[in-house]
Structures are given as C-alpha cells and as structure tokens.
Design goal:
Strand content of chain B: over 45%
Largest interface: A-B, 20 and 24 residues
Distance between the termini of chain A: 39 Å
Structural class of chain A: mainly beta
Strand content of chain A: over 45%
Oligomer: heterodimer
Number of strands of chain A: 11
Structural class of chain B: mainly beta
Helix content of chain B: under 10%
C-alpha cells in the first residue's frame, strides 16, 4: 500500500526538542521531493519545509528557519523533521507530504495521517 | 511571501447546487495553483493542480478557471461527499502558501 506514516509527536515544554519521522512505503521514496506541512485551527495549513529527493536543498518557512531541520534517509525510506527550541506557537498537527512532480507542478498528492505536537509548560 | 486569499470563508449550499470559491494571489503565480479538499480529522486531498489539471480520480463536477492572480474553483452539482473545507495553495515559489480555507456546509 502506498502510504506515509508519521511518528514522534507528543507534548514538550517550551525550549525543548522533538524529532518527527515519516515512514514511506509502496513507492520509490528516493524519487520524490518531500515536505512538512502543519495545521492549526487558528492559522490553517502552513507549509514548513521541503527537501529534494537526494536530500539536498532544504527550504524552510521563516517561522522555523534556524530551529527546524529537515532530512531524509532514502535507504530507510524515512523523512525527518528535527524541531529544536520549540515555542508554544509551534503547537500543531504536522503532516509529511509527497511532491509527485519535483521541480515541475509541485503539489502534495500523498499525506501522512498527521502527528500532533503540543508545546506547553 | 506570496499571499493567497480565499473567499468566502464559509458557504452554505444544498445538494445539486453550483458553488464557486475564489482564490487570489498577491502576485502573478502563472498557473502554479493547487486546490485541496479536507474533511474533519483527515489529511487534505489534492483535487486540482497546475490551475486546471484534475488529480486522478477526482470527479469532473470539479472545474477551475483563471490564471495569474485570480482563480476560481467551481463544483457544478454538489454531492453529499463534497461538504468539506477547501484550500487553495500556490506552488510558484517557497514558502508555498495556502489560503485560509472555505468551509462548505449543508444548508
């Protein structure tokens, strides 16, 4: 089955760290750019980060630049988001998403189930 | 950053109605505009990409028009499964930005 399965979310104190994982299956993970998108009721859907299929050229939203790091292990078919210096405003459901047309008509055609990250003291 | 603004933020309609949702970008994004549908507790699902292309499996009652800065999503005849929240998203350049969403509710 073609799917993305996220893990690693949870409750963390402000200033803490968390690493999200997104395990891909059913497709050739190494061929696709991948993204992280987060969602809150207040701000809706917000793009967080993107990484090329070969693990290069990470790109970030300004709100997370310098604090979050996207990476991937194509041998393990897994995408990661290392989140440091977490803030209350980082509280959200985090989705990993596949980009089927890397470099072309970019879009998110396959999403994970979402992982809740709650930052609170 | 490119701002994407949707209207209306909510919409009440009945089965069989024709509905239209508008998305406006703050600068010319050519045809780099995608539309998603999201149901409660689920991840979004892409409906249309590159402004006009229907994602595989999406019914033909969904259509789009526009390019540049102004885009419209039309559902020609609402079905029960269409009641959801719809988002536009520009993929012209990062940071990719989403509209704030249009919640389509049953009248």
């Amino acid at each position: 089955e073609v799917q993305l399965v996220e893990s690693g979310g949870g409750l963390v104190q402000p200033g803490g760290s968390l690493r999200l994982s997104c395990a891909a299956s059913g497709f050739t993970f190494s061929s696709f750019w991948m993204h992280w998108v987060r969602q809150t009721p207040e701000k809706g859907l917000v793009w967080v980060s993107r990484i090329y299929n070969d693990g290069t050229r990470p790109s970030y939203a300004d709100s997370v630049k310098g604090r979050f790091t996207i990476s991937r292990d194509n041998a393990k078919n897994t995408l990661y988001l290392q989140m440091n210096s977490l803030r209350v405003e980082d509280t959200a459901v985090y989705y990993c998403a596949r980009d089927p047309d890397s470099g072309g008509w970019s879009r998110f055609d396959l999403w994970g189930q979402g992982s809740l990250v709650a930052v609170s003291s | 950053d490119i701002q994407t603004t949707q209207s209306p933020s909510s919409l009440s309609a009945s089965i069989g109605d024709r509905v239209t949702i508008t998305c406006r970008a703050s600068q010319n994004i050519r045809s780099y505009l995608n539309w998603y549908q999201q149901k409660p507790g689920k991840a979004p699902k892409v409906l249309i990409y590159a402004a006009y292309s229907l994602q595989s499996g999406v019914p033909s009652r969904f259509s789009v028009s526009g390019s540049g800065t102004d885009f419209t999503l039309t559902i020609s005849s609402l079905q029960p499964e269409d009641f959801a929240t719809y988002y536009c998203q520009q993929s012209y350049k990062t940071p990719y930005t989403f509209g704030q969403g249009t919640k389509l509710e049953m009248k």
